[in-house]
Amino acid sequence: MDTDVFQTPCFILDQQELIRSIVGYQTALRNCFTDSVMGYSVKTNSLPYCLCRAEENGCYAEVVSADEYELALLCGFAKNHIIYNGPMKSYETFIDAITHGAIVNIETHRELDWLQDLPQEGLFHVGLRLNVNISKVSLDDADGENDDSRFGFSDETDEFKKALDYINQLSNVKLAGLHIHRTSHSRSIRFYKNSIRYACETIKNYNLHPEYVDIGGGYFGIFDNKPTYQQYVDAFKDVFDHYKLSDIKVIVEPGNAMVASCFSFLSEVIDVKHVEEKCWFITTDGSRNDVDPFFRKSSYMTDLLTKGDNEVVEKQVVSGCTCLEYDRLFTINNYPLLSVGDRILYKNVGAYTMCLTPLFIRYIPNIYVIKDDGVELIREKWTAKEYVQKNVIR
Ligand SMILES: *Cc1c(COP(=O)(O)O)cnc(C)c1O
How far apart are CA 70 and CA 68, in angstroms? Predict the structure, then answer.
């Protein structure tokens, strides 16, 4: 890739790749179910440009806070094309969403209370999130002996049953769906089969008649040797068919699978230091904050865009631009020494990166899109001017 047009540090969106993921998953759903909805998980990458492309391509916005709800509206989603999840709903947006036909999955007791304030006339649809302990539902996919969850109402205690009973006695509210999102380590087909089975068993046990099951996110994107979207969806269908729920509306909320592979991050070498006999530190204008805000990754998919004609050295530690001693990204062994101006492209970094980047030392970087007709700057980097907005400084 010729990177001269990009001012570093920056993220680069491959628009075609984003659309390929969205359309790929939608096609798989339509092949198996007469009614399905694909929600774009806003928290995974909340870049407005991506939200608009998701909207244009028929996705709903899956939001988990009042701020995200407002963002989805600003980006053009109709209220009845919003899926509203999580504990951070505000009272106003909760009522607004339900009365305008959004898919609202109840997560907290206070939301149950808020239902009292819905208009008495009319019949309002809500969903309920079911607590899923992966160790109990799909042990082989669990992270440890007790891969429990702090989300949803539990059917192991009386909370789920109580929530059902409560909703049932409200004459203007109907339970329209169950929500079962968990992201398993394995992202395996088996995990989805087991968790959908758990949802279907719950539906059967309580004799529920939901319009939808919202399976949530947690899928692999398009990668060799990983399950395809069609394989995931075929597995959903197997289980729903088994429970005679073939006509159910299936909702999915992929985050990682939609946005990981369509974003790269480009940084540039700004200094090369020889610190020990066999070790060089390469300072770049990127940071671990940009590509690994949880500081958990141990390797990256990178392209080293270097002339490569320097002498080979034993060890180069590629480091970030912050003043944090531990802002070190990766080590290169036995490779030509990098030079100032060389560039490093980190691939597959669109999920849980730019939306989690702190405003530390330097503010949010440029974002470009590569489209069929060229390159465009879609978010200009923040400077001190944007940083001080809404501050009292005098
Ligand atoms: C985070 C989240 C998702 C997306 O999860 P991925 O693992 O990124 O696919 C979907 N639904 C809900 C409720 C979430 O909180």
Answer: 5
CA dist., res. 217 & res. 251, Å (int): 10
- Ligand 1 centroid to 153 CA: how many Å? 17
Q: What's the per-residue H, E or C state across 309-323?
A: CCCEEEEEEEECCCC
pLDDT tens for residues 123-175?
999 999 999 999 999 999 999 999 999 999 999 999 999 999 999 999 999 99
Joined tokens for residue 267: 């940084």
Question: Residue 151: which residues within 8 A CB-CB, separation 6 or more?
Answer: 86, 87, 107, 129, 131, 181
Cβ 206 vs Cβ 161: under 8 Å: yes
pTM beyond cutoff 0.85: yes
Alpha carbon separation from 315 to 273, 282, 331, 334 (Å, rounded): 12, 10, 7, 6
Residue nearest to atom 5 of ligand 1 (CA): 217
Segment 218-259, tens digit of pLDDT = 999 999 999 999 999 999 999 999 999 999 999 999 999 999
Strands 212-216, 249-252: pairing is parallel
d(CA 29, CA 227): 14
- Among residues 188, 191, 217, the alpha carbon closest in space to that of 352 is found at 217
Using the mean position of ligand 1's atoms as its centre, give its distance from the Cα of residue 256 in Å.
8
Q: Is the CB of 217 under 6 A from ligand 1?
A: yes
